[in-house]
Design a protein that fits this description.
The complex is a heterodimer.
Chain A: E1 8-12, H1 16-28, E2 32-36, H2 39-48, E3 55-59, H3 67-77, E4 83-87, H4 92-98, E5 108-109, H5 114-125
Parallel strand pairs in A: 1-2, 1-3, 3-4, 4-5
Helix pairs in contact in A: 2-3
Chain B: H1 4-15, E1 21-26, H2 29-43, E2 49-55, H3 60-69, H4 74-80, E3 83-87, H5 88-93, H6 99-113, E4 118-124, H7 126-130, H8 134-143, E5 152-159, H9 160-163, H10 168-176, E6 180-183
Parallel strand pairs in B: 1-5, 1-6, 2-3, 2-4, 4-5
Helix pairs in contact in B: 1-2
The chains are: A alpha/beta, B alpha/beta.
């Protein structure tokens, strides 16, 4: 029997350096990753195949489309999408009030250790890699 | 021939004067960092100005780290009060859209008392887009004069992806209320 495909993670982060680091790390841990530094393009991609992604990992403050708006649009396309938000700012209240399914303790605070990303992704996907 | 980035830097560093209300459209964070770092290097170190940065897409601490990485003793200037870095969400969206400009006016008074030339603001407008407050953004921008009658040099800063969310009429209104548009 062929092995199950690795979970596909969409990562949306406007800081290109950080996006690259997160991308490489998640790939190293066995995830398939589609990275985007533009939330508008990420949303277009998600719209093409909403069921393809096991998880969406998104920054909050991004130019062009705020991460909260992005997440709400993603949830309109697929309401059961698992989403993890990451932010460098103190804005847990803003995130949780707009996205009630996200628990405060599940918000990734930048700067984070890379192992924290992996732990958060594993927890959100419920998949052991 | 000067690149767009060099031309933007020339306008920010050499052309804008106190009283000017300019707008700065930056294509990415790196372009914005180069602008405020070069400005601070040129104007904080001689002790001639107060610089106020209202940051949207980087934390105030990250801005400070960028300045340190550029060879600027940011902590020294922050302690001396000549460098002020605030979160633009707090400055524009927490109760008072005029928070940043009020702070700038108070800093301009202090600059005068301290014998400095004035205060320069880099105020990122991104929080208006974040909270879908484009009507408030237009109202705020149009409430400001093209030229300040105080020793304030303002750069209303827009990430290009945010600025592109405005309609052509809105863009024209915003551009028309600034004395220059700089593209970095």
């Amino acid at each position: 029997m062929p092995p199950a495909p690795a979970p596909l993670i969409m990562v949306v982060e406007d800081e290109k350096d950080l996006l690259t680091i997160v991308y490489r790390y998640l790939v190293k841990w066995g995830f398939d990753v589609e990275p985007f530094n533009d939330p508008v393009k990420a949303l277009q991609r998600f719209n093409e195949s909403p069921s393809a992604f096991s998880l969406v990992l998104s920054d909050v403050r991004m130019p062009g489309m705020d991460g909260i708006h992005f997440a709400k649009e993603v949830l309109k396309l697929r309401p059961d999408t698992r989403i993890v938000m990451m932010t460098a700012f103190e804005q847990d209240g803003y995130i949780c009030s707009n996205l009630p399914m996200i628990k405060k303790e599940d918000i990734l605070k930048k700067p984070f250790r890379l192992v924290e990303i992996c732990t958060a992704v594993k927890k959100a996907t419920g998949i052991a890699i | 021939m000067a690149t767009a980035a060099e031309e933007a830097k020339r306008q920010v560093l050499g052309e804008a004067c106190f009283g000017d209300h300019s707008m700065l459209v930056y294509r990415d964070l790196d372009a914005m960092r180069k602008m405020y770092c070069a400005y601070c290097k040129a104007h904080l170190e001689p002790g001639s100005e107060i610089v106020l940065i209202a940051t949207q897409y980087e934390t105030p601490d990250r801005v400070r780290q960028n300045l340190v990485g550029y060879g600027i003793d940011a902590e020294k200037y922050q302690q001396a009060g000549s460098l002020v870095i605030v979160d633009a969400v707090n400055g524009y969206q927490h109760g008072d859209t005029d928070g940043v400009i009020k702070l700038a006016k108070s800093l301009a008074s202090r600059a005068e008392k301290e014998g400095k030339q004035g205060v320069c603001i880099f105020g990122d407008a991104g929080s208006f887009f974040m909270f879908d407050r484009l009507a408030e953004l237009l109202h705020y921008e149009l409430s400001l004069p093209q030229r300040f009658d105080l020793k304030i040099k303002g750069f209303c800063s827009y990430h290009a992806a945010d600025f592109d969310r405005l309609t052509p009429d809105q863009k024209q209104a915003v551009e028309g209320n600034h004395c220059r548009k700089i593209v970095a």
